[in-house]
Amino acid sequence: MTDAARQRGKLRTVLATLAVISCMTALTVAAVPLYRLFCQVTGFGGTPQIVEAAPEQADDRWVTVRFDANTARGMPWTFRPLDREIEVRVGEQMLMFYEASNPTDRPVTGTATFNVTPDKAGLYFAKIDCFCFIEQTLAPGESIEMPVSFFVDPGMFDDPNTDDVHTITLSYTFFEQAGDEEQNSAALVSDETPGVASN
């Protein structure tokens, strides 16, 4: 084998290795959004559906919806539902509020994760709008009420797997966005300064 043939063989090996590494990197980057999409489509792991509107007609059946609020370790906010439990007509759009407060002397940005239990009800619990869709920034000492608009799909009672579900718990956990303190301060100053548009 000539030196030129050896060099071509080594080059092919290097290029093949780089191609494999690139594919693995792309799959790693895509894994989280793809898993999130899979959960939203299937309700896997208690992931609620995200929709634009409730059905035109509500059902005569009712379900109990409980509300749970948590903060991750290191998140300084206090966070709670304004109602712990409500009775919901199946298919009827409901509006519910959570309250968050920032007792610190600095602005804090939080992001909420969410799920419903039992997990099998996730496919039939639909959100129309939610504070959890975007980051929330609270100024020092600020408190806000944050809405969530949802309905329970009537199909839940037509599914043999979920026809025994009469209580659903909607649960949120707020995490602090790390490393955003300077950015949060700048954003709050921008919001409070007349004539300065915030991003």
Describe this structure in words.
The protein is an alpha+beta fold and 199 residues long. It folds into two domains: 1-42; 49-178, Ctag/Cox11 (Ctag/Cox11 (Pfam 04442)). Helices cover 26% and strands 34% of the residues. The protein is built from two helices and ten strands, in the order H-E-E-E-E-E-E-E-E-E-E-H. The protein has helices spanning 3-42, 181-192; strands spanning 49-50, 62-71, 78-81, 85-89, 94-101, 108-117, 125-130, 136-138, 143-152, 167-176. Strands 1-7-9-5-3 form a five-stranded mixed beta sheet. A five-stranded mixed beta sheet has the order 4-2-10-6-8, with no helix packed on it. It is flat and about 80 Å long. The protein starts with a helix and ends in a 7-residue tail after the last helix. The relative contact order is 0.19. The model is unreliable at 29-46 and 182-199 (pLDDT under 50).
Summarize the structure.
The protein is 26% helix and 34% strand.
Give the topology, please.
Elements: H1 3-42, E1 49-50, E2 62-71, E3 78-81, E4 85-89, E5 94-101, E6 108-117, E7 125-130, E8 136-138, E9 143-152, E10 167-176, H2 181-192
Parallel strand pairs: 1-7, 2-10
Antiparallel strand pairs: 2-4, 3-5, 5-9, 6-8, 6-10, 7-9
